[in-house]
Structure formats: structure tokens, C-alpha cells
Amino acid sequence: MVESFVGTWKMLQSENFDDYMKAIGVGFATRQVGNRTKPNLILSVDEQGIICMKSQSAFKSTEIKFQLNEPFDETTADDRKTKTVVTLDNGKLVQKQTWDGKETSIEREISDGKLIAKCIIGDVVAVRTYVKEA
Questions:
Q1: What range does the domain containing 14 cover?
Q2: Does this model's pTM top 0.85?
Q3: Which of 41, 44, 33, 35 is nearest to 10 (CA)?
Q4: For a surface tag, which of 23, 36, 107, 120 has the fewest beta carbons within 10 Å of its beta carbon?
């Protein structure tokens, strides 16, 4: 159920994110900022079932709106232009991005009341943990 993801999530910790950014082709200066940034993740769903996912930080805010299983064009926080599709798979919100012959996926799941986001490209996995704001 997408509803379990709805809310404002505050980043608690981030592991291996620099290696992940390197693997997707993010430059050094942007990685330095990306490693210091702890964005909030805000997820909402409207009456038509359109999901809005915002990432907000002092550095940069991004927003995507989508429906499950429907491909869309996304411009990522690091300015990649991707074809993206988000599916709900065994309780995980799986965001697959493809660009320039590359593919990455971000698997988000709720575990012990926390939102765990696994960013995966090839054999590189970054794990970002969020807690829900009251």
C-alpha cells in the first residue's frame, strides 16, 4: 500500500552514498554537496492516485509526480534526464531510472517504522534511512 509511505520523512543516516553517486556519474563537487545534504522526503497521493514525491534540502529540492507502472520523464537532482517507472512490488516502492544505456533502481520500504531507501546500480548499493516526522 502506497499509503504507508505517505508523510514527511527526515533523513537519519546515509551509507555508501558517495560510491553510488560516483557509479551513476555524479561529479566530485556535486558529490561533496550531496554527501553533506540530508534531505526530507515528502510523499503524498491525490484523489486520482497520482503520487507526489518531493526531496527537500537547503541545497536543492526536487519533485516528481507519477502514477504507478506508468513511465515518465524525470530530471534528477544531479540533472540526469531519465526514463523512470515506479512500481509497487511486495510492499516496496521501486523506482527504476534508465538513461544513456545505464539503469539504477531505488527501492523504498517501510521497516520498523523507518523508511529505508536502497539505491542500487550494478553491485553498488547505498542505504539511506529516514524517520517519520510527527
A1: 2-132
A2: yes
A3: 41
A4: 36
